[in-house]
Amino acid sequence: AGWPENLDLVRADLVDYWRLLHDAGGRLDRHYLLYPNPWPKSCHLGRRWHGHPVFPTLLALGGVLECRSNWPLYIAELCFAIETLRGHTVACERYLPAAALTPFERKYFASGHALWRCRVDLGRH
Question: Phi/psi of residue 97, each to 5°?
Fold first, then answer.
């Protein structure tokens, strides 16, 4: 099975890419934040995606946004940020993958870590 026809592999600074995509009127069907660096110190909140100034732009791109992490606080904060910016409840849930999407997911799952996710359809709200 090959790549889907509508798949573009891009290596770019995501902050710039999301802003340019938004400014060009682009919309996403799906986007994933898979096992991002949690930056666990509270002084590093701005380095987490939900604490970054580009986060409202990311949400404005629409589509289904899914974030996965082995750090439940990251997912809880992300859900809170989406709820605050979009005004609706977002589920923070424990997640058991049928098949790992990334090497990090495979590693964390194999080592017995609890995996968490936030999944929200931004086009419906």
Answer: -70, 140
Q: Examine residue 72 and state whether it is found in any structural domain, yes or no.
A: yes
Domain assignment present for 81: yes
pLDDT tens digits, one per residue of 15-41:
999 999 999 999 999 999 999 998 989
* Alpha carbon distances (Å) from 8 to 11, 81, 111: 10, 28, 32
**pTM for the whole structure:** 0.88
Residue 55 lies in a domain: yes
In a domain, 9, yes or no: no
CA trace torsion 28, 97, 105, 5 (10° rounding): -40
- Residue 79: which residues within 8 A CB-CB, separation 6 or more? 90, 91, 92, 118
